[in-house]
Amino acid sequence: MIEVRGLCVAYGAGRRRVEALSQVDLEVGAGEFVAVVGPSGCGKSTLLFVLDGLVRPSAGTVKIAGEEVRGIRRDVALILQDAGLLPWKTVQQNAELTLRIQGRKANVKDVLEQLGLAGFERRYPGELSEGMRRRVGIARALALHPRVLLMDEPMANLDSITRERIQNLILELWYRLEFTAVLVTHDIEEAVFLGQRVVVLGPRPGKVVEVLENPGMGEPEYRDTAEFRERVHHLRELLVGSAA
């Protein structure tokens, strides 16, 4: 589904030139859930923006479903860290926003029901809890019926209970809707719980330093197993070592 070869991304020119990513190779199969971790500033978000068509590579190729990414695609959706809601628009209007921008028919009733937001359609973001605001951001992405869902720290800065609820919700939606998922996160435990594979990027310019197979992901009791703790420990040691 996703094929990245020799990806390099640099910003600026001359003395102001900053390399964000260097020679990144990555494959994500159709219906796979991949988590991406790495130190701050290593290019994790840049990788998502390239996959979404918002940033053009300086070198290399990026393909989705065999087609080179040359701009924003209708079958790819991106969820940002703060949900990106417009405070003057209602829950329904925020969920419909991207559909309307793309000139597509706006019908988000089913998506809002799936996310437990039925009855809140006329509420404004300021009237919602942080967890509900994040769900509205997820609703806006899923309303596009994407084949690929890109997530940039969608559960950052949430309390631990709300964070686990959103993690479980995303997992449930992935099982049900069978989209391909790429999640960027700073949270190692989150990456191990959700990612069938965990891709580790090294310090800037980001390169793939390891891909961890994670067959236990998604199991309800996985967080309580020795395998989960071992993989979390391994990734933590790897990231601490790469930052040294």
Low-confidence stretches: none
What is the averaged pLDDT score? 90
Order of helices and strands: EEEHEEEHHHEHEHEEH
C-alpha Rg (nearest Å): 18 Å
Question: Which band does the percent of strand residues land in?
Answer: 15-25%
Can you count the helices? 7
**Helix content estimate:** 25-40%
Which sheet architecture does the biggest sheet show? 6 strands, mixed
Distance between the termini: 35 Å
Oligomeric category: single chain
What is the number of beta strands?
10
- General form: globular
- Output the strand order for the largest sheet: 6-7-8-3-9-10
Q: How would you classify the helix and strand content by structural class? A: alpha/beta
Layout of helices and strands:
Elements: E1 2-11, E2 18-28, E3 33-37, H1 44-51, E4 59-64, E5 67-68, E6 76-79, H2 91-101, H3 109-114, H4 130-142, E7 148-152, H5 160-177, E8 180-184, H6 188-194, E9 197-201, E10 208-213, H7 226-243
Helix pairs in contact: 2-4, 6-7
Structure description:
The chain has 244 residues and is an alpha/beta fold. It has helices at 44-51, 91-101, 109-114, 130-142, 160-177, 188-194, 226-243; strands at 2-11, 18-28, 33-37, 59-64, 67-68, 76-79, 148-152, 180-184, 197-201, 208-213. The chain has a six-stranded mixed beta sheet, sandwiched between helices. The longest helix has 18 residues, at 160-177. The two termini are 35 Å apart. The mean pLDDT is 90.
